[in-house]
Amino acid sequence: MSGESHRLKLGVLISGSGTNLQALIDAIDAGELDASIEIVVSSRPDAYGLQRAQRAGIQTLTLSKDLYADPGVADTVIATELKRAGVELVVLAGYMRKVGLALLLTWEDRVVNLHPALLPSFPGAHAIDDAYKRGVKVTGVTVHIANEDYDAGPIVAQEPVRVEEGWTVDELEAHIHEVEHVLLPRTIQLFAEGRVAVRPDRTVEIS
């Protein structure tokens, strides 16, 4: 813990069940993460993560499919609401849409994405299935800074997952999620402590 009175203000973007959102909520409640979640944005109105946010008393925002038909407009609306909430770091936690310049320029090097593979291997929306079908013996989880190139931003943290013989893809996914739930809060705490810097060569230094 940093011991500082300031708590890093987060905006969390989700699309589904919100288990990583819950991991952040739990880490904050346990005193392990010096942050507050100011708003949760969902790309789907039926995402269970919205219920998690509401139970925790967190403001939520859901955009309609019509609004998402124009990604630029959608991102502008999201950016406006995040700014209104005073968000300092944007966390993409299972958010299944590519974010655009309205977010990336407003929070330059302050948009963080969670990816269920060891980037640069297996980018894209089907990383767990892709790694499983390839028969890799080690995969893992990456937390990286998002940029205009999908799953290609500077890497902040990675944690490997060793694939055991006989695992099903569902078992692999379960182990990936277990690692995500630890790695994401731990990495966000580095930002809360001001220990993450992006070098000119677009690699990350942890102080």
What's this entry about, in short?
The chain has 207 residues and is an alpha/beta fold. It is 36% helix and 24% strand. The chain has a single domain (8-206), classed as Formyl transferase, N-terminal domain (Rossmann fold, 3-Layer(aba) Sandwich).
Describe what this molecule looks like in 3D.
This protein has 7 helices and 9 strands. It is of the alpha/beta class. It has a single domain (8-206), classed as Rossmann fold. The strands form 2 sheets. A 7-stranded mixed β-sheet has the order 3-2-1-4-5-6-7, sandwiched between helices. A two-stranded antiparallel ribbon has the order 8-9. The longest helix has 24 residues, at 169-192. The mean pLDDT is 95.
Features:
36% helix, two-stranded antiparallel ribbon, 7 helices, 207 residues
Number of separate domains:
1
Distance between the termini: 15 Å
CATH level 4 superfamily: Formyl transferase, N-terminal domain
Radius of gyration: 16 Å
Largest sheet: 7 strands, mixed
List low-confidence stretches: none
Quaternary structure state of the chains depicted: single chain
Number of strands: 9
CATH fold-level label: Rossmann fold
**Average pLDDT level:** 95
Tally of separate helices? 7
Enumerate the strands of the largest sheet in spatial order, edge to edge or round the barrel: 3-2-1-4-5-6-7
Helix content: 25-40%
Strand content: 15-25%
What order do the helices and strands come in, and which of them pair?
Blueprint: E1 8-14, H1 19-29, E2 35-42, H2 49-55, E3 59-62, H3 65-68, H4 71-84, E4 89-92, H5 101-106, E5 111-115, H6 127-134, E6 138-145, E7 155-162, H7 169-192, E8 196-198, E9 204-206
Helix pairs in contact: 1-7
